[in-house]
Every structure is written in structure tokens, then in C-alpha cells.
Specification:
- A hairpin with a 5-residue loop joins β1 and β2.
- Among the domains are: 47 residues; 84 residues.
- A 3-stranded antiparallel sheet has the order 1-2-3, with no helix packed on it.
- With 276 residues, the protein is mostly helical.
- 50% of the residues lie in helices and 5% in strands.
- The protein is elongated, with a radius of gyration of 30 Å.
């Protein structure tokens, strides 16, 4: 999905229309509508993502419900919570919700005493479609937002949220794509691909049918010996200058060699980006 689409979705979340306000605070309305807005936006772009409920939030709910059965800081409370969280991780959220309600009934809790228990059970039943943790873990998906929030801070915030920085959606997306490539260790592979595409766009595309006529024997007349480029192809350092320039101002670029052949015209060297 493009950055503009995501930004538009987030804008809808943060600026809900007044007609949606039914006497509730805006933050509650955002929580109610944000998931549906993002799902519709993703579907419109042709994506069908997994929406996963943060397991840390689930653990907090279960822990609060356990305080109605056991005292805080006891081994019994820890064992009670651990057993039910393990069941939730196995994809049995509805079973856990029913179990804690039965336990509250057997203990004879009145409506006020079992308020946190019923709240936890309602929460588990409401979001059980987003709590299929056994499937998520088998697929290698994160079930907590810590790793995602950390990536957003390092990848996005540390670069974009600088003093007096102003970004357009196009510029921000371009910088973040390069930063993501650098962070993931894929930048060198991408740069080789980028150089090949630049050669095709600005050189090969100028010839009919994309067929570049080779100049044979030119490589043998060069005084420099072929060297290896970072991509592993044999290269030759050839001077590039116009007829009106002094030889002292020659700039050297690396041209790909294929079977001892060079392109008929020197290409303009592009500057490799080293930091983002």
C-alpha cells in the first residue's frame, strides 16, 4: 500500500466527522472506527491483512480478572493467569471466557464483585477472531506490538521527526523506502538493480528494438586492464568528457563489459547514496 493511502486512512481516524459523535469523546470513537476504516482501505487497495490483537493487552485483562479469585502477588494468581493465557495462545479464547464466568458463578460472586470477570470474558468473545494466536505463531507473525513499535520508532520517527523537518508524502515515502533497504541489508542488491534499470532507461531505450550495437575491439585498445565491479561483472574504467573539455578534467566511470564489448557511448555515473 502506498504511503498516501495509509496517511489518508489515519487522517480519517484522527478527524472523525461531527455527525459520528454520539455524545462520546473522540478517543473512544477512534477506537471504535479505526479498525473498520483501515480494513476498508486495505481491501480497496487489494490487500487482505491479518488484524492481530496485541497479546499484552489480553494478558492485562486476564490478570485483572484473576485478582477477583486470588490475592495479588501470590503464586496461585500467577498459576491461574498462566494457565488461561496458555489456553488463549492455543486459540481457545472463547473457552477461557466461558470458564472464568463459570468460576465466578461457582464462587457465588454478585454482579458488582464479578464486574472485571465479565468485562474480561466479553473482551475475549468480542475479539476472538483477532486472537487466533496459534495460527499467527505458526505463520511467524508477531503477536505483540513491541517489535512493530520499535521498528516504527527507529525506521520512521528517528528519521522523519526532526526539528523543522517538513515532508511531502512522495518525498517521505522515497526516503523511507531507501532507509528500509539499508536497515534490512538489501541496499547493495537494490543498487545493482537500480543501475541496471537506469542503463536500460537512458541508454538501451534510445535504440530501435532495444538492440545496442556493440563496438568490437574497443576494449583491447584501452590502456587500463579490466577490473571487477561490486556486482562481480568485468568492468573497464573509461574517461568521459566532451570535445571541448580539457583531458585534465576527465571523470572516470565504471562501464559493464560483456564478452569484451563496450556500449558505443560512455554513460553518466550515478552517485551511490551512503546514508539516509
Amino acid at each position: 500500500m502506498k504511503a498516501g493511502s495509509v496517511a489518508a486512512s489515519l487522517l480519517k481516524i484522527n478527524r472523525l466527522p461531527d455527525r459520528w459523535n454520539f455524545g462520546e469523546p473522540q478517543d473512544i470513537l477512534r477506537k471504535r472506527f479505526h479498525k473498520d476504516i483501515l480494513r476498508k482501505r486495505f481491501h480497496k487497495e487489494g490487500y487482505y491483512p491479518w488484524i492481530i490483537l496485541d497479546f499484552i493487552h489480553v494478558a492485562e485483562r486476564v490478570w485483572k480478572a484473576g485478582l477477583d479469585f486470588h490475592k495479588e502477588g501470590t503464586a496461585e494468581l500467577e498459576a491461574w493467569v498462566s494457565k488461561r493465557l496458555l489456553a488463549i495462545l492455543k486459540g481457545r479464547a472463547a473457552h477461557v471466557a466461558a470458564g472464568i464466568r463459570r468460576s465466578a458463578t461457582r464462587h457465588g460472586f454478585d454482579e458488582q464483585a464479578r464486574q472485571r470477570i465479565d468485562s474480561c470474558a466479553d473482551y475475549l468473545l468480542k475479539y476472538k477472531k483477532n486472537m487466533k494466536y496459534n495460527q499467527y505463531l505458526n505463520m511467524g507473525l508477531p503477536i505483540a506490538t513491541g517489535v512493530i513499535e520499535g521498528a516504527c520508532r527507529y525506521l520512521v520517527k528517528d528519521r522523519m521527526d526532526r526539528t523543522a523537518a517538513r515532508w511531502s508524502l512522495t518525498g517521505a515515502e522515497a526516503v523511507l523506502r531507501l532507509r528500509a533497504l539499508r536497515t534490512s541489508g538489501d541496499f547493495d542488491t537494490y543498487w545493482r538493480f537500480h543501475e541496471e534499470q537506469e542503463y536500460r532507461r537512458h541508454h538501451v531505450a534510445l535504440y530501435a528494438g532495444g538492440q545496442v550495437p556493440p563496438i568490437r575491439g574497443r576494449a583491447n585498445k584501452q590502456s587500463q586492464a579490466p577490473s571487477s565491479s561490486p556486482s562481480g561483472r568485468r568492468c573497464l574504467h573509461a574517461p568521459t568528457h566532451s570535445l571541448h573539455e580539457s583531458p585534465a578534467t576527465h571523470a572516470s566511470v565504471t562501464l559493464p563489459l560483456s564478452n569484451g564489448l563496450l556500449p558505443p557511448f560512455p554513460t553518466v555515473a550515478s552517485k551511490k547514496i551512503t546514508s539516509f
